[in-house]
TrEMBL record:
Annotated signal sequence range: none
Claim: Iron-sulfur is one of the keywords in the record: no
Annotated membrane topology: Single-pass membrane protein
Protein name stated in the entry: ATP synthase complex subunit 8
TM segment ranges: 6-24
Subcellular location, record wording: Mitochondrion membrane
Pfam families cross-referenced by the UniProt entry: ATP-synt_8
Ranges for region Disordered: 35-55
Gene name as annotated: ATP8
MF GO annotations: proton transmembrane transporter activity
Taxonomic lineage from the root: Eukaryota, Metazoa, Chordata, Craniata, Vertebrata
A biological process from GO: proton motive force-driven ATP synthesis
Organism, as annotated: Drymodes brunneopygia
Keywords: ATP synthesis, CF(0), Hydrogen ion transport, Ion transport, Membrane, Mitochondrion, Transmembrane, Transmembrane helix, Transport
């Protein structure tokens, strides 16, 4: 059964990972984030408790 022969598929997998690691990944990582993370601590919203009419 040719599906179980790892010879061509291992080379294809290895070639694709090398391509991704050496060429595509640095290009993707070079982009700047449009919304960089900030160091500010988020403030919780000011909420008031609900007043029930029957209490």
């Amino acid at each position: 059964m040719p599906q179980l022969n790892p010879n061509p598929w291992f080379f294809i997998m290895l070639t694709s990972w090398v391509t991704y690691s050496m060429i595509i990944q640095p290009k993707i990582l070079s982009f700047l984030s449009p919304n960089p993370p900030s160091n500010n601590t988020p403030t919780p919203p000011n909420t008031t408790p609900w007043t029930w009419p029957w209490t």
